[in-house]
Amino acid sequence: MVQNSIKSVTDDHKIIRAFAQIPRHLFVPKEYRALAYQDESLPIGFGQTISQPSLVAEMLSLLQLTGTEKVLEVGAGSGYQTALLSQLANKVYTIERIPKLAKRAYQVLSKLHITNVIVIEGDGTLGLENKAPFDAIIVAASSPHIPRPLVDQLQNQGRIVIPITDEDGGEKLKLGVKNGKTLHTLNCGAVRFVPLVTEQ
Ligand code: SAH
Asked: Which entry of 30, 69, 183, 199 is 20 to 30 Å from 156 by CA?
């Protein structure tokens, strides 16, 4: 998977090493384990999916992490991307709204002895005010707009990566870089994600 799917997306050695180190099959339900190292998204229950590895690699490379950052992830899902983030940043806070997925992600991360991640059950569209500001924010579910709390909780010069749905149902990956009060955004291609559900 690393040779065929990850190296074609990024030449960042830290990202390539993280993919080589984190065993994706542990984050996939038993019945899909044979497919764990294919470049595919797979069902993880509750109508949700573990993201496609090459897309995760692309999103991680847009964040340009150096290893010192405090990162917020919205949508832990299986916890796979969270585990990769744990290798690339100093501290990771991840929010998941489905309690059973949050619990399962926590259990797999613990089993892998990953200690720089905090899993929080809740609505990630609100961010995590008491741990802000974040150097980077990554959202694994698509939304019609970038939730305001996430922009507010982003550090100056911080980066956010989020899939955005447009009126005709299309989805585009967006990179936002904060400069003072302004968020400069860049379109990074078409993607497909589960929807970001807001409780408000
Ligand atoms: N990167 C994850 C992707 C999981 S799919 C993985 O590879 O496993 C996206 C996840 O976002 C789902 O688990 C869904 O429950 C969660 N989600 C959707 N809306 C959310 C919200 N408002 N707050 C927190 N999590 C949310």
From this structure: 199
The pTM score is 0.97
Range of the domain at 159: 2-190
Q: 197 lies in a domain?
A: no
Q: Whose CA is nearest to atom 2 of ligand 1?
A: 77
Q: How many domains does the chain have?
A: 1
Q: Is residue 196 part of a domain?
A: no
Q: What is the pLDDT of residues 53-99, one digit of tens each?
A: 999 999 999 999 999 999 999 999 999 999 999 999 999 999 999 99
Determine, yes or no, domain membership for 147: yes
Q: Quick one: 188 exposed, middle or buried, by C-beta within 10 A (0-12, 13-18, 19+)?
A: middle
pLDDT of amino acid 198: 87
Residues linked to residue 43 through DSSP beta bridges, in sequence order: 49
- Give yes or no: 110 in active site: no
Q: CB of 48 closer than 6 A to ligand 1?
A: yes
Average pLDDT over the chain reads 96
196 C-beta closer than 6 A to ligand 1: yes
